[in-house]
């Protein structure tokens, strides 16, 4: 099946620094990728839709200047958490859409755990 | 507004016993419904999906789910649970695979 990777899997940073998380579709091209945030014991919350070659579409309540998304190629989307604060600590998950004759399907990365000290 | 409710946070099942995980949804149109499984260190894996047609859907790993419009439910079932099924299970609703709304998940524990 289609594989999506994320790097890094874990990151610890100091408050005020920026952190970049990469999401790659390893064996397929993805025009659309999604970024989710998952709090402990809570569901995945969609943060934004990342479209290759255009600006990301952010969900209501998500600060676009804080969570910068770049989808520069059909296999790579990046999420940069700028000026991170402890409340940004969370589990960030990306997914990539594979379009085939049978329809679209989202494939998920393993997630990145961000801890901001 | 779209929402998904998974009323059980944890469920413990003996190995070999049957399993049912509950999912109720609220959606304004005909729902597209999904069940995903999340194992530690791995991404969410699609178990099965319902778009239309037969309301009993077969998935991978021996799982099935039944769409009941009258009850707004899409419960996941497996007749005989294996220890390797221990994981977190998420129900989701959406318009196709776009903008999925997830439930809070149910953690399945399998006892020997």
What would you note in describing this structure?
The complex is a heterodimer of chains A (117) and B (112). With 117 residues, chain A is mostly beta strands. Chain A is built from no helices and eleven strands. Chain A has strands at 4-7, 10-13, 19-25, 32-38, 44-51, 57-58, 67-73, 76-81, 90-100, 103-108, 112-116. The radius of gyration of chain A is 14 Å and the shape is globular. The termini of chain A are far apart. In chain A, 36% of the residues are buried. With 112 residues, chain B is mainly β. Chain B is 0% helix and 54% strand. Chain B is built from no helices and twelve strands. Chain B has strands spanning 3-5, 10-14, 19-21, 24-26, 32-38, 45-50, 56-58, 64-68, 73-78, 87-95, 98-102, 106-111. In chain B, the strands form three sheets. In chain B, strands 2, 5, 6, 10, 11 and 12 form a six-stranded mixed beta sheet that branches. The radius of gyration of chain B is 13 Å and the shape is globular. The relative contact order of chain B is 0.33. The model of chain B has no long low-confidence stretch (mean pLDDT 93). Classes of the chains: A mainly beta (117), B mainly beta (112). The A-B interface holds A 4, 9, 32, 41-46, 49, 93, 95, 97, 103-111 and B 4, 9, 36, 41-46, 90, 96-105.
List the helices and strands and how they pair.
The complex is a heterodimer of chains A (117) and B (112).
Chain A: E1 4-7, E2 10-13, E3 19-25, E4 32-38, E5 44-51, E6 57-58, E7 67-73, E8 76-81, E9 90-100, E10 103-108, E11 112-116
Parallel strand pairs in A: 2-11
Antiparallel strand pairs in A: 1-3, 3-8, 4-5, 4-9, 5-6, 7-8, 9-10, 9-11
Chain B: E1 3-5, E2 10-14, E3 19-21, E4 24-26, E5 32-38, E6 45-50, E7 56-58, E8 64-68, E9 73-78, E10 87-95, E11 98-102, E12 106-111
Radius of gyration of chain B: 13 Å
Question: N-to-C terminal Cα separation of chain A, in Å?
Answer: 37 Å
Counted beta strands of chain B: 12
**Largest contact between protein chains?**
A-B, 22 and 20 residues
Low-confidence stretches of chain B: none
């Amino acid at each position: 099946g289609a594989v999506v990777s994320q790097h890094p899997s874990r990151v610890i940073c100091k408050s005020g620094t920026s952190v970049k998380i990469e999401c790659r579709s390893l064996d397929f091209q993805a025009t659309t990728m999604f970024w989710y945030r998952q709090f402990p014991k809570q569901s995945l919350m969609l943060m934004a839709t990342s479209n290759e070659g255009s600006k990301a579409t952010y969900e209501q309540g998500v600060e676009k200047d804080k969570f910068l998304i770049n989808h520069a190629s059909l296999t790579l989307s990046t999420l940069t958490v700028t000026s991170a604060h402890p409340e940004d600590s969370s589990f960030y998950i990306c997914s990539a859409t594979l379009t085939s004759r049978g329809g679209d399907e989202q494939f998920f990365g393993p997630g990145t755990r961000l801890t901001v000290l | 507004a779209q929402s998904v409710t998974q009323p059980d946070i944890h469920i413990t099942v003996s190995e070999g016993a049957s399993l049912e995980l509950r999912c109720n949804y609220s959606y304004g149109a005909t729902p597209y419904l999904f069940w995903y499984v999340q194992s530690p260190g791995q991404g969410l894996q699609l178990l099965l999906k319902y778009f239309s047609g037969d309301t009993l859907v077969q998935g991978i790993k021996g799982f099935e789910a039944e769409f009941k419009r009258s009850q707004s439910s899409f419960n996941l079932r497996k007749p005989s649970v294996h220890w390797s099924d221990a994981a977190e299970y998420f129900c989701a609703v959406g318009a196709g695979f776009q903008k999925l709304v997830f439930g809070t998940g149910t953690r399945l524990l399998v006892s020997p």
